[in-house]
């Protein structure tokens, strides 16, 4: 049996790193996702879309030129953020909403109070797991669709409004809408809203001065 007849060990969608490419050594260390897996007499076995945030191209590789990358967190995992993500303090919990190619600057997106934040693996820890390492999902709905963001009529969510605004004004809508709903005391959220509207005023003033 020739190498052209041997099935690839990678399935489409597998996250891989280039580790032994002799023809194009500059690609070693690059990461990507397998797109098409096949052997032919003219092309190598596996088509890989390389994309690490700074470099993007498609190329073919033999199996021995690739190694699979295991990801620590999966979409839907409940995680705790270990660093401050203003206005979110360290210790807040969220849900992994997207897993991008490992090797990108921020391989994970985590939804905190309905807002997606790009995160590094070392900035997260799993919430809810037993001694076998089995992931336990709990309170996912409360994180993805918390009541303090879903109280508007006709199924409208706060994020539906905020995503049409810029960063500062989106945060104003976020904090004003949840004031007195996430906690009994609305003062802190109103102060956060004030902070972001002040930033927007400063931004507009600078634009007008140009």
Please give a structural write-up:
The chain has 210 residues and is of the alpha+beta class. It has three domains: 15-68; 72-141, Roll (SH3 type barrels); 146-210. 21% of the residues lie in helices and 24% in strands. The chain has four helices and ten strands. The protein has helices at residues 140-144, 158-162, 167-178, 187-209, and strands spanning 15-18, 31-37, 46-51, 56-61, 66-68, 78-81, 93-99, 108-112, 115-119, 124-126. The chain has a five-stranded antiparallel β-sheet, with no helix packed on it. Strands 9-8-7-6-10 form a five-stranded antiparallel β-sheet. A hairpin with a 2-residue loop joins strand 8 (108-112) and strand 9. The model is unreliable at 130-141 (pLDDT under 50).
What is the CATH architecture assignment of the largest domain? Answer: Roll
Strand and helix order: EEEEEEEEEEHHHH
CATH topology name of the largest domain, in short, is SH3 type barrels
Q: Let me know the largest β-sheet.
A: 5 strands, antiparallel
Characteristics of this structure?
five-stranded antiparallel beta sheet, elongated, SH3 type barrels, 4 helices, alpha+beta
Secondary structure: elements and pairs:
Blueprint: E1 15-18, E2 31-37, E3 46-51, E4 56-61, E5 66-68, E6 78-81, E7 93-99, E8 108-112, E9 115-119, E10 124-126, H1 140-144, H2 158-162, H3 167-178, H4 187-209
Helix pairs in contact: 3-4
What's this entry about, in short?
It is built from four helices and ten strands; from the N terminus they run ββββββββββαααα. With about 210 residues, the protein is of the alpha+beta class. The protein folds into three domains: about 55 residues; about 70 residues, SH3 type barrels, CATH 2.30.30; about 60 residues.
């Amino acid at each position: 049996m020739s190498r052209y007849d041997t099935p690839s060990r990678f399935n489409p969608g597998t996250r891989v790193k280039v580790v032994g490419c002799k023809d194009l050594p500059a690609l070693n260390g690059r990461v990507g996702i397998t797109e098409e897996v096949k052997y032919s007499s003219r092309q190598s076995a596996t088509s890989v879309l390389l994309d690490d945030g700074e470099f993007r191209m498609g190329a073919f590789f033999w199996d021995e030129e690739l190694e699979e990358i295991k990801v620590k967190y999966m979409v839907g995992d409940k995680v705790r953020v270990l660093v401050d993500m203003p206005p979110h303090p360290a210790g807040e919990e969220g849900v992994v909403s997207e897993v991008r190619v490992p090797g990108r600057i921020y391989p994970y997106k985590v939804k905190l109070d309905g807002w997606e934040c790009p995160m590094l693996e070392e900035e997260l820890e799993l919430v809810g797991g037993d001694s076998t390492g089995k992931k336990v999902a709990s309170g996912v709905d409360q994180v993805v669709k918390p009541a303090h963001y879903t109280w508007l009529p006709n199924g409208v969510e706060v994020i539906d409004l905020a995503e049409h605004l810029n960063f500062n004004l989106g945060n104003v809508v976020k904090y004003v809408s949840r004031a007195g709903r996430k906690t009994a005391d609305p003062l802190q959220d109103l102060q956060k809203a004030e902070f972001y509207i002040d930033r927007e005023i400063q931004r507009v003033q600078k634009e007008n001065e140009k």
